[in-house]
């Protein structure tokens, strides 16, 4: 049986098309014609020996085999990039100070640090996991080189800031059915009505601008609320949420199994506005170690956010 050797250029076109949501845009990004990219995809399906795409409205989505192929494509492209960086930056030395919000500390940090350390073993990394406001303050004081942070509005005008994505914020409650018996728990179908017991909120300690957004959103909807629990630790917020003390609001990343996203429409809760995720650099042109770590962080974040998007026709 002939061994299949997948072409990295083909895999890059495949992965880029999924990331951009269109293979026409992928062709522009990669400097190829749309017909050339289409030919690459046909070659990939032929090599895979199975269908990788299915119709999804006016566009295309991945089949189960396509999802599997995409996961391997990411791994193969990452390994290729890692090998290239390791060869070119084998002697890279220095010190990088990285800041991340807790949402991404456990989900992204192991992947990013692992890839960076394998390629650049002589570079020392100092990681800080904190609130976004604290990370921005550390940046302004020169205590961080690169940081990922949440913003309430678009941050592209800020100095050395790069807009990454607008991410929906969601209500989070306990996963346990027992917690749903509480008199304040949002009821599916019936929703929350005025005059009911105030909604207990589990929020980060002040100062935190997101606290104001949550409470103002409830005020505009005419729903009573009360502060039931605060903490500087995201882990403590998850513990309080899983215990059924109330509901919190976060981006749906790295959620522990003891909590779940609450369907706000079915529960009668107002929709929360999205948050802007921004990558900050302390310098407009950071040194090589910081620039390389920022690049890896952006790749990891975009891959993390990408999840199962439909692809426009090519």
Structure description:
This protein has helices at residues 8-20, 23-30, 34-48, 64-88, 102-105, 109-119, 132-140, 209-220, 234-242, 264-267, 288-306, and strands at residues 53-56, 59-62, 94-100, 123-129, 146-151, 161-167, 170-174, 199-204, 225-231, 248-250, 259-261, 275-281. The two termini are 32 Å apart. The chain is 41% helix and 21% strand. The protein is built from 11 helices and 12 strands. Residues 189-195 and 308-314 have low confidence and may be disordered. The protein has a 5-stranded mixed sheet, with helices on both faces. Helix 8 links the parallel strand 8 (199-204) and strand 9 (225-231). The relative contact order is 0.17. It is α/β, with parallel strands linked by helices.
Looking at this protein, list some descriptive labels.
single chain, 314 residues, alpha/beta, 5-stranded mixed sheet, 3-stranded antiparallel sheet, 11 helices, 41% helix
Order of helices and strands: HHHEEHEHHEHEEEEHEHEEHEH
What value does the Rg take, in angstroms? 22 Å
| Total beta strand runs | 12
User: How would you state the average pLDDT, rounded?
Assistant: 82
């Amino acid at each position: 049986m002939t061994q299949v050797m997948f072409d990295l250029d083909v895999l890059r076109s495949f992965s880029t098309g999924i990331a951009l949501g269109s293979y026409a845009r992928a062709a522009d990004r990669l400097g190829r014609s749309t017909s050339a990219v289409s030919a690459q995809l046909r070659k990939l399906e032929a090599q895979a020996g199975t269908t990788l795409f299915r119709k999804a409205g006016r566009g295309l989505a991945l089949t189960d085999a396509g999802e599997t192929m995409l996961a391997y494509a990411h791994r193969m492209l990452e390994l290729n990039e890692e090998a290239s960086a390791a060869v070119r930056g084998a002697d890279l030395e220095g010190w990088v100070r990285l800041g991340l919000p807790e949402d991404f500390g456990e989900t992204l940090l192991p992947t990013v640090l692992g890839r960076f350390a394998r390629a650049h073993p002589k570079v020392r990394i100092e990681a800080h996991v904190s609130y976004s406001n604290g990370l921005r303050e550390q940046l302004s004081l020169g205590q961080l080189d690169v940081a990922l942070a949440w913003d309430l509005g678009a941050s592209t005008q800020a100095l050395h800031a790069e807009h990454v994505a607008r991410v929906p914020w969601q209500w989070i409650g306990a996963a346990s059915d027992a917690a749903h018996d509480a008199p304040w728990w949002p009821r599916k179908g019936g929703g929350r009505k005025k005059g009911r017991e105030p909604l207990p909120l589990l929020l980060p300690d002040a100062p935190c601008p997101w606290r104001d957004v949550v409470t103002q959103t409830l005020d505009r909807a005419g729903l009573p609320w009360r502060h039931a629990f605060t903490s500087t630790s995201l882990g403590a917020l998850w513990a309080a949420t899983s215990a059924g003390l109330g509901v919190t609001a976060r981006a749906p990343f790295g959620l522990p199994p003891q909590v779940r996203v609450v369907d706000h429409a079915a529960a009668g809760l107002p929709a929360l506005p999205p948050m802007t995720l921004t990558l900050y650099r302390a310098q407009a042109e950071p040194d090589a170690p910081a620039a390389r770590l920022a690049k890896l962080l952006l790749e990891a974040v975009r891959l993390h956010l990408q999840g199962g998007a439909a692809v426009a026709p090519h």
